Amino acid sequence: MPSARLPAGHLLLALAVVAVWGSNFVVIKWALAVMPPFLLGFLRFAIALVPALLFVPRPAVRWPLLAAYGGLIGAGQFGLLYLAIDGHIAPGMASLVIQTQVFFTIGLAMWADGERLRPVQVVALALAVLGVVLIGVNTGGDVSALGLGLVLLAALSWAGGNQVARRMGRVPMLGVVVWSSAFALPPLALLTLLAEGPARIGGAFAAADAATWAEVAWQAVGNTLFGYAAWGWLLARHPAGTIAPMALGVPVFGMASAAWWLAEPLPAWKLGAAALVIGGLVLNLLAQKRGP
């Protein structure tokens, strides 16, 4: 029986996952200094797939759903996110804007399943939209219009993956992430060859040092395998309403770590945009906890 009480050890584990997911935007930026974005995405899912196949059983999910999830999350979410962070948007801002996937997920559920917005969710959506608009009117410098658009498309792809996951029912997400990685590899490999080319790929491998490979491995081992395994373990022992709010700390860790390690500036408009988007996420979460 899931428990609403969160022991100190479980709380620390949840915070560790959130810290890994948030600070990973900085690690992505470091890795992109050597690896081109689509190659980085390919390596991430390849490393997550190959060893994990030996100890993570395939979930009871139809292959077409695994293929759709892998394509949307692999080439869609992370391919576009890596492309955006590769010189088009600051990592801290990317960690914030990608959270709009919550509202894209709601929109897709309304379109596909006929779900309806509650009044508080309308307010939540309005707050998040205002936050994105505030970012949009301040493009230039470390946030370009292209970067903002790419991250929004990445968030839409993530929402599509969420919609596919809903069709799977209650299955272990770690297994879904690992086995769907096989379907993320072909589109990422094609994008790598067409957009980046053999010369750039060879140059990246030649320039990669131990730090680069550690950053690449962190995408798969820390962000994917540890993150999803620990989060799934916590969700199996506590109600989603107890664990899910912790994910609101991802953009906080993302923006704070980018400011600390990359000296990413935090002017008033960025803090205001963060307050609006996170405020919208909190309102939406409260609406879900209240029920219909």
Question: Structural class, from secondary structure content?
Answer: mainly alpha
Mean pLDDT: 92
Main sheet: strands, sense, barrel: none
Helix and strand sequence: HHHHHHHHHHHH
Molecular shape: globular
Runs with pLDDT <50, length 5+? none
The N- to C-terminal Cα distance equals: 24 Å
Radius of gyration: 18 Å
Q: Count of helical segments?
A: 12
Into which percent range does the helicity of residues fall? over 70%
Brief descriptors of the model:
292 residues; 12 helices; mainly alpha
Q: Could you please describe the fold and organization of this structure?
A:
The protein has 292 residues and is an all-alpha fold. Helix content is 77%, strand content 0%. It has helices at 8-32, 37-49, 63-85, 91-97, 101-113, 119-136, 145-168, 173-207, 210-237, 240-243, 249-261, 268-290. The mean pLDDT is 92.
